[in-house]
Amino acid sequence: MIRAAGLCKRYGSQDALRSLDLHVPAGELFVLLGSNGAGKTTAMNLFATLLRPTAGEAFIGGHDVVAEPMAAKAELGYLPDAPALYERLTGSEFLEFVSDLRGIRDRGRVGELLDVFDLQDAARKLIGDYSLGMRKRVALAAAILHRPRALLLDEPTGGLDPRSARVVKDLIPALCSEGVAVLMATHVLEVAEPLADRVGILHEGSLVACGTVDGIMGQTDVASLEDAFLAATAP
Q1: DSSP class of residue 126?
Q2: What is the 3 state secondary structure string of 91-125?
Q3: Angle at 35 between CA 40 and CA 157, to 5 degrees
């Protein structure tokens, strides 16, 4: 559902992403782990059609993101690390706006997601008055409004209070159980370890380890994902 083959992004002489090979099938949560600057957001933006690859290919639902960007985006939901929202709209107005853009005829979908994300009380408040947690929740609601088959999540729990983080962490396995392929980028090991079906460790633009949590710990002969991450990214 989400696939990369030799995917590269270069800025001048600097390689932000080097020859990424990746496949996330339907129903799987794949977590890209990496320090700041490792290439996680670059990879997400390539899949989301926000960047054009220097080399290689990326596919969403079988659609090449360069040759068929609109078809790829129709299959995709994306939550960036810092979502850009219309602050002079209320939460419900924003979701209704996205619903209209997506051509969604199910008018009950907005109310359903306001319930899921515990936003009913804030639905008529301006987004400009929202906390960070509320902003991320309404942005995630917008990302899954059209029931995408693939979902990109860039640091979805970053800066969230425990209640908001729990809402997000509970939702991800539920989406996977419905057959959604989820690619999540984070540097927070405590988020990745209990949720991930598979993990890939990015270091300086390269995928240096890939597998289940237990498999990666076995490859590096350590007892925790933290130790495996440190071993895989050691100078």
Answers
A1: B
A2: HHHHHHHHHHHHCCCCCCHHHHHHHHCCCHHHCCC
A3: 70
The 3-class secondary structure across 29-51, one letter per residue, is: EEEEECCCCCCHHHHHHHHCCCC
Give the bridge partners for 5, in sequence order: 57
Strand 150-154 to strand 181-186: parallel, antiparallel, or no bridges (unpaired)? Answer: parallel
pTM above 0.85, yes or no: yes
C-alpha dist (Å) from residue 228 to 150, 201, 234: 28, 9, 10
> What pLDDT, on the 0 to 100 scale, is given for residue 220?
76
Q: What is the pLDDT of residues 181-201, one digit of tens each?
A: 999 999 888 888 899 999 999
Does residue 148 contact residue 76 with C-beta atoms inside 8 Å?
yes
Torsion angle of C-alpha atoms 23, 69, 137, 32, degrees rounded to 10: 30
Pinpoint the alpha helices (H) of the chain. 40-47, 69-74, 91-102, 109-116, 132-144, 162-177, 189-195, 213-220, 225-232
Are 75 and 63 in contact by the 8 Å Cβ rule? The answer is yes
Set out the domains of the chain in order of their start, with CATH numbers.
1-75+149-161+176-235 (3.40.50.300), 84-147 (no CATH)
Amino acid 112 reads E
Closest CA to 153 of 2, 1, 41: 41
- Rounded to whole angstroms, the Cα distance separating 31 from 45 reads 15
Neighbours of 96 (CB within 10 A): 17
Model confidence at 163, pLDDT cuts 50, 70, 90, reads: confident
